[in-house]
TrEMBL record:
Residues 61-109 have a biased composition (Low complexity). InterPro entries: Pectin_lyas_fold, Pectin_lyase_fold/virulence. This is Pectate lyase superfamily protein domain-containing protein. Residues 46-109 are annotated as: Disordered. Gene3D superfamilies: Single-stranded right-handed beta-helix, Pectin lyase-like (2.160.20.10). It comes from Caballeronia glathei. Signal peptide: none annotated. The lineage of its organism: Bacteria, Pseudomonadati, Pseudomonadota, Betaproteobacteria, Burkholderiales.
Length: 408
């Protein structure tokens, strides 16, 4: 992601800059068939001003300076621990008369706890952040049902290992007015076995009085493992709809086995999704649209911060991008090469770009300088409005293969 670590000079004329940077591979215009781009190199025509202003990823995004990841007040609002009986619904299915010792070896039945039982108002006005955090903390191992239209402050919410949060139809969380260049509405930080169903998150960018920053995230995933997110909606965030990166707390810990299905991102300033680092990251059937407001402005940006990142078994299945100002999908590896050899495996299939001013599919920035980055980047059966762009790509880097493209 350009400009990630520090709010360097912003370039607002995306269209003009994109024309300068991109050298479209017109050989794709023929369509059909298979094109193997064996890291053929994009020449030296990149805009040096643009390259100089690219930061090294969004590491600051996952650790807001206000200490949002440990809100002490959030974990114990008055009366929040009261619904103890509700957290053990399994007793209803094991009456004393059964006296069946075998039941002890079975996991307890999963109950559904209402957010309102923890004091969540969900009235569209009240700051429910503390009550929602108490509900999350008090429902581990159960299903927490979000039922209303909650508002929260920019401190955000932390999911826990074994959290299972479900949003009822029509339920949502929207940020209250704020002044924050950095926030994470929902965090999955160093957690395992999390399920998040149908979250509907509104970052309220129109209510943000900040004038800088680009790290306001709908869902932030840092060093998490074995997590499933289904049908998330992330709109109007100051930065990204969903952000995936290494742990901020544990050196060498990266996000693993993360599956996101049917994601809809719209109106996000920076990206629909950023994948900075991860292994076994899967997005199925996403729609990323109307993205723009700060660089890069892409539907999906796969962009490591540095040589500590991992990009292995990244699968993007049937994505649709539309009106993404900086481009539909961008893979930028300008900060990836370093002393540790890296192997990349990124597979994109069925990408449809309806219209994105910055291009449909752009692969850029790899300069090895004697280091090793190998592997494969593939795009199968894409339908693009514009040919792909391969720019400033070291010929010894990963092969880039496009099969059966349809252009126009």
């Amino acid at each position: 992601m350009f400009f990630n670590n520090a709010p360097a000079k912003q370039l607002n004329n995306y269209g003009e800059e994109s024309v300068i940077r991109r050298k479209l591979l017109t050989s794709l215009l023929a369509g059909g068939g298979a094109l193997l781009l064996a890291a053929c190199g994009g020449g030296g025509g990149a805009d040096p001003e643009s390259a100089a202003n690219r930061g090294k990823g969004g590491k600051g995004a996952s650790a807001p300076a206000d200490g949002a990841s440990t809100p002490a007040a959030a974990s114990a609002p008055a009366g929040a621990s009261a619904p103890a009986a509700a957290s053990t619904p399994a007793t209803a299915s094991t009456p004393a008369a059964d006296n069946a010792p075998a039941a002890a070896s079975e996991p307890p039945a999963t109950g559904v706890l209402l957010d309102t039982s923890f004091g969540v108002k969900g009235d569209g006005t009240t700051n429910d952040r503390a009550a929602l955090q108490a509900a999350i903390d008090g429902s581990i191992g159960q299903i927490l049902l979000i039922t209303g239209t909650s508002r929260i402050d920019a401190t955000g919410l932390d999911l826990r290992t074994n959290s299972h949060v479900r949003f009822a139809p029509g339920a949502s969380i929207k940020l209250l007015p704020h002044n924050a260049g950095t926030y994470e509405m929902i965090r999955l930080a160093d957690v395992d076995n999390v399920t998040l169903e149908s979250p509907n998150l509104d970052g309220s960018k129109e209510l943000n009085s900040a004038t800088t920053g680009q790290w306001g995230m709908g869902i932030s995933i840092n060093g998490a493992t074995n997590c499933t997110i289904t049908s998330p909606t992330t709109i109007n965030t100051w930065g990204d709809g969903i952000y995936v990166n290494n742990s901020d707390r544990k050196t060498g810990s990266y996000s693993t086995n993360i599956t996101v299905s049917d994601h809809h991102a719209s109106g996000c300033r920076r990206q629909g999704v950023s994948i900075i680092s991860g292994k076994g990251i899967v997005f199925n059937n996403p729609l990323w649209e109307n993205i723009g407001g700060t660089e890069p402005g892409c539907g999906l940006d796969i962009e490591p911060n540095d040589n500590t990142a991992v990009l292995e078994n990244i699968q993007i299945v049937n994505p649709t991008t539309n009106n993404c100002k900086g481009g539909g999908i961008l893979i930028y590896l300008g900060f990836f090469a370093g002393p540790v050899a890296k192997t990349v495996s990124i597979a994109i299939s069925g990408h449809t770009d309806l219209t994105s001013p910055g291009g449909s599919f752009n692969v850029q920035g790899l300069k090895l300088n004697g280091n090793v980055v190998n592997g494969t980047i593939t795009s199968a059966n894409p339908v693009w409005k514009q040919p792909m762009s391969l720019e400033d790509w070291d010929k010894a880097g990963p092969t880039v293969t496009v099969t059966n493209p349809k252009i126009g």
